[in-house]
């Protein structure tokens, strides 16, 4: 059985993706690991909990999922990993909850996640990366 690596990608932050490429490629070479890329579409209540405004006119969820998967696959082309070992997942909801759920269901041997440098909002609200580190049942590599 090959290793499973989960790589959550924020498709709205290409700099995050660029930061983790070399780490993912290095880990994927070990035992010809399967790499599962995940992007999460935050639900409206999640945005509201962050105090973010949103318009009344939003695209439908099917349209958002399709567009997100297309963007995720486009970003994944930057990784030197054979296509037959790349898998793509799009979920809706709280990013940390969806990352943890997929890590458990795969089951992932490793999660590689990019994170912002800590600031005051991280201390007050916590971050997705911090929640994944705290609650994941597998190893987590946080790249800053």
Automatic annotation (TrEMBL):
Domain UspA: residue ranges: 1-144
Pfam families membership: Usp (PF00582)
InterPro entries: Rossmann-like_a/b/a_fold (IPR014729), Universal_stress_UspA (IPR006015), UspA (IPR006016)
Origin: domain of life: Bacteria
NCBIfam families xref list: PRK15005.1
Assigned protein family: Belongs to the universal stress protein A family.
Subunit description: Homodimer.
Protein name per Swiss-Prot or TrEMBL: Universal stress protein F
Source species of the chain: Klebsiella pneumoniae
Gene that encodes it: uspF
């Amino acid at each position: 059985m090959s290793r499973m690596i989960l790589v959550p990608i924020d498709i709205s932050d290409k700099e995050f993706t660029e930061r983790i490429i070399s780490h993912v490629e290095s880990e994927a070479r070990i035992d010809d690991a399967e790499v599962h890329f995940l992007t999460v579409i935050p639900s409206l209540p999640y945005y509201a909990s962050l105090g973010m405004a949103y318009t009344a006119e939003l695209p439908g969820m099917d349209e958002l999922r399709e567009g997100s998967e297309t963007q995720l696959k486009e970003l994944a082309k930057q990784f030197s990993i054979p296509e037959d070992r790349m898998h793509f997942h799009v979920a809706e909801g709280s990013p940390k909850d969806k990352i943890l759920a997929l890590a458990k269901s795969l089951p992932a041997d490793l999660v590689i996640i990019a994170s912002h440098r800590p600031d005051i909002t991280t201390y007050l609200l916590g971050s997705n990366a911090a929640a994944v580190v705290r609650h994941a049942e597998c190893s987590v590599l946080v790249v800053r």
